Automatic annotation (TrEMBL):
The lineage of its organism: Eukaryota, Fungi, Dikarya, Ascomycota, Pezizomycotina. Pfam families: Rhodanese. Residues 37-177 form the Rhodanese domain. This is Rhodanese domain-containing protein. InterPro entries: Rhodanese-like_dom (IPR001763), Rhodanese-like_dom_sf (IPR036873). It comes from Hyaloscypha hepaticicola.
Amino acid sequence: MRRMAMHTVATLPRLSSTELSQILLSNTSSNLDASTPPSKIAIVDVRDDDHIGGHIRHSIHAPSHTLDHKIPELVRKLQDKETVVFHCALSQQRGPSAALRYIRERERLLGPNAKTKMQSGSGVGEVMRKNKELEGKVEDKDAEWEDVEEEGGKEQRVYVLDRGFVGWQERYGEDSRLTEGYRKEIWKDGYWM
């Protein structure tokens, strides 16, 4: 019988809205309004009826009540992504729970080859460095945000967006490069659910 890694909600790494915005902005060299989603990162929004008032550009909407049948599909669909970020409104229950279910299903479906990186730290530097490499613009190795390169099999980082979409919209709601469908009037009095 195969043993699964013991991940818990407490061990799930968090990614701040600032760190996620840096990854997204570095991932799209000049045209954030492009219709093509980023190739190395996926953002999964698991909000249900509260999926109104905007969403992170190029995020995948997978309502938490559909995850029983959506998680295996997400694992297959996102298997080539280097980073997967889950969130709900506040990222206190649904987002972390979805991330945990995703990690466990990924390990179940992909077996021992499923490497999920679970450590503190955002990995922003590594993602930004890889984006520069893809653009052919590798710069100074000691530049800001530089992380150590890792070799080996296909690895995936799984995060929970700290403070969820509520925290995101406070900072980036009106930034059309990062947020789609934002409705300021819905958020003027804060989170309502």
